[in-house]
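Input sequence (460 aa), recorded before submission:
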Amino acid sequence: MKLATRLWLLGAVVPMAGMLVALLLADVFFEALLAREVDRALLTQAAVESVSLFDGPRGEPHLHMLGSPLERAVRPFAPDAELFSPEGRRLAVYPAHRDEGVGGVPSTPPPGEPVLETVRGADGVRTRRLTLGVLAPTGGVYTLRLTASLAQQDAAVRTFGSVTLAAAALLGVGLFALQTWQARWLAGRLGQLRGLIGRMREGVPTEREAGRRGADEVAEVEGALHEASARLSEARAAQEHLIARAAHELRTPLALMRTSLDLALWKERDPQALRESLEETRREVVRLSALAGNLLDLASFGQGGWEVRAGDLREVVDDAASAARAEAEGRGVWITVEGPEPAPCAFHAASVRQAMDNLLANALRYAPSGTEISVRLAHAGAGWRLSVRDRGPGIPAEHWDTVFQPFFRAEPKGAGTGLGLAVVREVAHRHGGRVQVVPVEAPGTEVVLELPEAGPARTS
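Predicted structure, token format:
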């Protein structure tokens, strides 16, 4: 079912159907209410007439309306009255000019038991009739018959029905017009969202129109889609950039390896030259292996959730420092670790260890011989602050943010893959923390990794 049809059905047809049912019930109730009021008026007058029916001269029965001083004032709405003797002879009639043959002679009901009935005349006008048997003091049962026209009540019911039906019709037209406008407006908004989703599916960047604003749910969805589109575009651009840089980084060592192998195969070479060629090829293979490993690490961060467990962060730091000491000693550099023992924290041990390895490897790459690499672990607020400080040439301040981007190197021909610090940033992000370069007294660089003690708020 289309949106416009649903809005017409639920916003106009169903309310109108309910309103018509309510009007029919109100019409029936209104008619019943008027009939009850007529019956009450007939019973009231019958009670008055029956009590004083025989208070005339010599106890003769009579109708009081004939001698009432208000007779002219009440004649338009007062009921007609007839009085019959026990033998069925008409003794009196009100109003006096009424045709005595109208209505015929009624059957006399038992005294004190009024009979109410609705009768339709030859002219089609309905009347409400009350017949009452009245016991005379001298014996015998007289019959009192009161008749009230229902023409005014029927006219009131018809007027009520016509007015309410006309109002309902106007309201229905208004509802249909309103729902038509609302359906077209909402269909247009949803059509824009559908087009926006289609462009997002095709990878076309979308921009929100400057003049389009709103505070309803559709506007919120549209804003969320535009935001998602912007993030997807940024992610796609970053992915394309990463792929392009990765292809470039992979092409260089592969080209060097191929050149070295081609030269070795081109002509006969002595063992020493072949060894040098093989050593150069091995260095490029090691570089390719490191590059592939870092690329796989970056890709794995977006796959599924991590198993975060409570552990000792100091133990991971000590293990990473111990693993790096062999290379550090070969370079004439020593590594020191400071911090509390234990350091309880909820974290993903393998990724934090990898981040520590990358930080130490980056520090070792630039640390001069005879200097120290300081690793400090300290509790800061609701988390842990892990810093690695070297005494190398340092990173220029203008590169403190960009150094964490994939394949970025402060030195264009510097060693490494340019992915180590990017992996550290992803580890921090996945844990709900952050990594940054902080200013220190020259020389050297200090990189700080901050991790929340309670672990990441989301682990997927």
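Checked by second reader. The first strand starts at residue 80 and ends at 84.
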